[in-house]
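Reading a protein record of the kind used here takes little practice once its layout is understood. The fold follows as a row of integers, each naming the local backbone shape at the matching residue. With these conventions in mind, the following record can be read line by line:

_____
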Amino acid sequence: MEPMAKTNISLSGEAAQEGAAVQRRSRSSHKPLDPDTADAFVRRLCYLLDTEDFFGKYASFTPQAKIAKQFLASAEDKSKSEFNCAVSPEVRHQVPLVFQAVAGVMEEKSGVIVQSTAEINGEGFGRGLLYTGRVILVLRSLRAGFPFPFTAEEKVIRYGVECVEEGLAFLHKYKEITALHGLLSLEG
């Protein structure tokens, strides 16, 4: 029994080393973003922020400044959210805006109406859902608010563009599968 135990220990050690190497590589290397999609996402997010700016306080700001002032959470808010697992009202405000902006970009690029539903409770658990008709295009679970709150514009844009690309890829795949009967004609 002893040789078998030593083999299992050595195998689990090798697997842990390989897993750590993969994890390190995946964090440092990011796929380059499509600049058109990133610009469309920033534009949509700024439109949504402008609709809430009733008195035009931020009307003269650049898109980057609008996102920084109206949307991003401060470092203190992020540390407070991580400490007690309770999310602030600012974070609860970020979640639906991101998914609405993603839905708008997907509509522009695909020509299909895309709806968004996003919810997050006070403890940071929730989901973001993008769908068209009866087809779910993107479903993201939020655990303890992760990846929210965003503290940098680059992270917001990367998250939004990744959601757009995921949803469009699934929509394209689903259209190919249902080309004979149409996208929304399946009976369930």
In short: The CA atoms of residues 131 and 141 lie 15 Å apart. The radius of gyration is 21 Å.
